[in-house]
């Protein structure tokens, strides 16, 4: 798969080479060699850094990268270290171990955390944010904050973001925001598209395809028991649509997408209409007015029904919120 071209770690004779798409979008010369044109996604440059994995710090960073890429092998149902997650890998959603432009990368993690997040209505550390993805996206339990595993993932994110100045979100970080459609997203249209464009890898029932060793997925599930739960970020239709538009079918990219915006919204509606594990979210969104427009569970600060918050149309909700 072409992701191996963008990030690969080879270890031999105790040394490792990390090739990483790294964020470098700084317009100021004070960042010297990292200076790049600010307005291209190619703000991501390929950095080749040779490291000997013999320092403790480098070992920790490389272990962190491995945990992101092969989470299930270590922490999944048949994991070698602990059994705390559902069989998915962080990399299933944070492509190329969280370094891919518009592939839900980690470029802005070290520069922006700790930060206030409305879901918990509190200032969250990187540890808290990683724990969230364990409890929601991996439908599991969080590793202890003092564990080597948590320390390794934090060290890896710090390493990825080490050239990004505090507070800066590099262009190409995270997930795209697509424009809202004028209509509600349509699960029925999405169902037809799913069969055509997704089922070959993710399965007719969204169940994915498991590796012969039974320890991890070759193609991860999109719904059902082994998928992320309904408290995960991807369960918001705008997040799913933005991620899929830029990254799926596998091989698509922000600059060379395969789906149109409409197709991405309809696919998101179809997938979000399927069953998945439930998470008790009574403690989320303490300030109801901070709840995102496309969060599919009430209560809301407006009078639009849950269904409209789940599938749209979103424009009337946006204008009702701005015209108070
Ligand atoms: C099912 C998909 C999925 C999986 C698997 C997943 N994540 Fe995430 N993660 C997301 C989404 C989506 C977001 C962004 C949510 C948003 O924008 O609201 C996110 C956000 C994050 C962030 C914050 C990024 C930022 O810039 O604010 C971190 C850190 C993170 N995830 C770590 C992890 C780790 C570590 C794992 C594995 C243990 C993991 N994630 C597994 C979907 C996933
Ligand atoms: C050629 C195979 C292939 C096709 C076709 C494909 N995907 Fe994927 N998809 C993948 C792989 C592989 C991953 C995990 C990437 C990784 O681990 O590096 C993935 C990950 C995902 C994820 C995040 C992880 C998860 O399981 O939730 C979503 C969402 C997704 N795909 C949606 C889609 C949709 C929607 C389509 C149809 C438009 C699609 N994919 C078509 C291979 C494919």
TrEMBL record:
Domain Cytochrome c stretches: 185-275
GO molecular function: electron transfer activity; heme binding; metal ion binding
Any Pfam family: Cytochrom_C
Keyword vocabulary terms for this entry: Heme, Iron, Metal-binding
InterPro entries the UniProt entry points to: Cyt_c-like_dom (IPR009056), Cyt_c-like_dom_sf (IPR036909), Cytochrome_c-type_DH (IPR051459)
Tree of life domain: Bacteria
Protein name, as recorded: C-type cytochrome
Phylogenetic placement of the source organism: Bacteria, Pseudomonadati, Bacteroidota, Cytophagia, Cytophagales
């Amino acid at each position: 798969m072409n992701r191996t071209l963008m990030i690969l770690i080879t270890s031999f004779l105790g040394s490792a080479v990390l090739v990483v798409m790294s964020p470098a979008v700084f317009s100021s010369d004070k960042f010297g060699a990292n200076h790049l044109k600010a307005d291209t996604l190619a703000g991501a440059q390929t950095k080749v850094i040779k490291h000997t994995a013999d320092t403790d710090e480098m070992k920790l960073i490389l272990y962190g990268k491995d945990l992101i890429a092969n989470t299930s092998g270590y922490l999944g149902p048949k994991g070698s270290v602990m059994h705390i997650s559902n069989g998915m890998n962080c990399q299933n959603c944070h492509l190329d171990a969280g370094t891919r432009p518009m592939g839900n990368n980690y470029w802005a993690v070290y520069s922006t955390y700790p930060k206030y997040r409305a879901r918990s209505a509190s200032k969250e550390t990187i540890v808290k944010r990683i724990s969230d993805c364990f409890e929601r996206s991996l439908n599991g339990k969080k590793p202890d904050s003092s564990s080597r595993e948590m320390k390794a993932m934090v060290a890896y994110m710090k390493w990825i973001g080490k050239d990004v100045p505090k507070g800066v979100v590099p262009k190409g970080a995270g997930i795209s925001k697509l424009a809202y459609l004028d209509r509600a997203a349509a699960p029925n249209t999405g169902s037809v598209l799913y069969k055509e464009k997704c089922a070959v890898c993710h399965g007719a029932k969204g169940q994915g395809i498991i590796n012969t060793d039974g320890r991890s997925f070759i193609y991860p599930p999109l719904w059902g028991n082994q998928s992320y739960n309904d408290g995960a970020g991807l369960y918001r239709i705008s997040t799913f649509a933005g991620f899929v538009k830029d990254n799926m079918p596998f091989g698509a990219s922000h600059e060379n997408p395969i789906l149109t915006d409409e197709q991405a919204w309809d696919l998101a509606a179809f997938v979000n209409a399927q069953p998945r594990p439930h998470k008790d979210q009574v403690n989320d969104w303490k300030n109801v007015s901070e709840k995102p427009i496309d969060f599919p569970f009430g209560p809301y600060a407006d009078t639009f029904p849950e269904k409209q918050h789940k599938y749209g149309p979103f424009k009337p909700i946006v204008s009702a919120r701005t015209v108070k």
